[in-house]
From TrEMBL:
InterPro entries: UPP_synth-like, UPP_synth-like_CS, UPP_synth-like_sf
Organism: Piscibacillus salipiscarius
Cofactor binding description: Binds 2 magnesium ions per subunit.
Active site: residue positions: 28, 76
Known function: Catalyzes the condensation of isopentenyl diphosphate (IPP) with allylic pyrophosphates generating different type of terpenoids.
Name this protein carries in UniProt: Isoprenyl transferase
Amino acid sequence: MNFKTNKKLDMDRLDPTNVPKHVAIIMDGNGRWAKKRGLPRFAGHKEGMKTIKKVVERAVELNLEAITLYAFSTENWKRPPKEVEFIMKLPSQFLDTYLPELIENNVRVTTIGHYDGLPEFTKKAVQYSVERTKNNTGLVLNFALNYGSRSEIVDAVKQICENVKQDHLNSDEINEELISNYLYTNQLPDPDLVIRTSGEQRLSNYLLWQVAYAEFYFTDKLWPEFNHDAFDEAIIEFQNRKRRFGGL
Ligand code: IPE
Ligand code: IPE
Ligand code: MG
């Protein structure tokens, strides 16, 4: 299988020289997609993996620097254990299937979130792919797994306090850049664009610090229905926005 979409870009509408560097996606609506078809929720999660492949393909074609995909939040543990277990197996299914293509396309796999809280089998699959792709220089495919933005900020604050206490850091040195450097995303530019599927218009504890100046794009499409064209539409919309960053 090749990571080429064969889906032509609509160059009249999408300017490939003006794409966001980092797109953060809240992949929502798998359960509703399944329900609409009388299927169990896990069928929606499985179908959603196909969308991940499509979005990664497009991100590679568009030369994006990074995409961060919200795969499991710290709040998602509230779900029934059977569903959690199913979701936790998806990273290994995705990576076992697509790792060769990811490598071929120079994609680097990374993760953010409470890694230690993941089941062993999830950690193993993720660790292997992270290791195998660590020298790749193309798209960063970043999975937010067991991720919660507030707990990320709490961890950063604790580390900063500890470093001040140990005299490794002076409190005068604490500034926005330093705080960014203590977050899981310290190797990535802040997201320029946040996409959320399924019609919900909230962040659900996603990258709260990092999206301070991101553009938001909400679509009613459920995640398994999202595809290359839908991704292009989001990019086109982004290109039509006027980002001011507080200026004129
Ligand atoms: C998103 O789909 C996937 C995860 C949160 C893991 P949902 O499972 O939240 O689907 P809906 O929102 O119930 O339709
Ligand atoms: C957000 O979706 C988390 C992920 C997509 C992984 P949720 O479905 O968990 O969010 P809420 O509960 O509707 O806010
Ligand atoms: Mg949901």
